[in-house]
């Protein structure tokens, strides 16, 4: 649990996630969070190919909120695929490898922060590089810890 807190942003939490009433609510909130992340990553992918400063800044502002969200409560114990088959796609391996999971979360934050900074600096080259790192950090976690469809 302690390591999972590495997901938390070092600054004040803008949009902290409350504790959830039950495992179903937890998984629903988790899936909504990652859907929001995907909703930002899609336009950012387009911007990584064809940069536009204002659009990049607008997406970066959304990403910043997501990065400032403490997602530890979204990975409450009892919400793995083994606990909730057909509902959860989070492998039980997460809770057995919390240190590595936290390290992957930290890499995700580092890449995300670089992406936000590149957008705000109107640095298209850095933006493209950071977008690649960000996608890599998503994939690394999925490869180890997400049940394939
Ligand atoms: C995305 C998204 C992911 C990652 C992953 C990168 O935009 O929704 O899950 O990038 O595809 O490999």
Question: What are the key terms here?
Answer:
5 helices; disordered N terminus; 0% strand; mainly alpha; 149 residues
Overall description:
The protein is mainly alpha-helical and 149 residues long. The protein has helices spanning 23-49, 53-67, 93-96, 98-120, 124-145. The longest helix has 27 residues, at 23-49. The relative contact order is 0.18. The model is unreliable at 1-14 (pLDDT under 50). The structure holds ascorbic acid.
Topology diagram in text:
Layout: H1 23-49, H2 53-67, H3 93-96, H4 98-120, H5 124-145
Helix pairs in contact: 1-2, 1-5, 2-4, 4-5
This protein binds ascorbic acid.
The coarse silhouette is elongated
Question: What would the average pLDDT be, to the nearest integer?
Answer: 91
Q: Write down the Rg.
A: 15 Å
| Ligand species | ascorbic acid
Structural class: mainly alpha
> Order of SSEs, N→C?
HHHHH
Largest sheet: none
Give the % helix: 55-70%
Query: So how many helices?
Result: 5
How far is it from the N-terminal to the C-terminal residue, by CA?
27 Å
Q: Can you count the beta strands?
A: 0
* Low-pLDDT windows of residues: 1-14
Beta-strand residue fraction? under 5%
Short characterization:
With 149 residues, the chain is mainly alpha-helical.
């Amino acid at each position: 649990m302690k390591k999972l807190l590495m997901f938390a942003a070092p600054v004040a939490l803008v949009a902290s996630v409350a504790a959830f009433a039950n495992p179903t609510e937890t998984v629903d909130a988790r899936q909504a969070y990652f859907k929001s992340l995907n909703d930002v990553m899609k336009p950012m992918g387009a911007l990584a190919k064809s940069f536009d400063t204002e659009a990049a800044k607008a997406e970066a502002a959304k990403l910043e909120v997501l990065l400032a969200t403490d997602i530890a409560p979204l990975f409450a114990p009892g919400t793995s695929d083994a606990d909730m088959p057909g509902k959860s796609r989070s492998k039980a391996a997460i809770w057995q490898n919390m240190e590595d999971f936290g390290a992957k979360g930290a890499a995700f934050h580092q890449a995300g922060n670089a992406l936000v900074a590149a957008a705000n600096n109107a640095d298209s080259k850095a933006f493209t590089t950071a977008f690649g790192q960000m996608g890599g950090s998503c994939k690394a976690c999925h490869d180890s810890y997400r049940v394939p469809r």
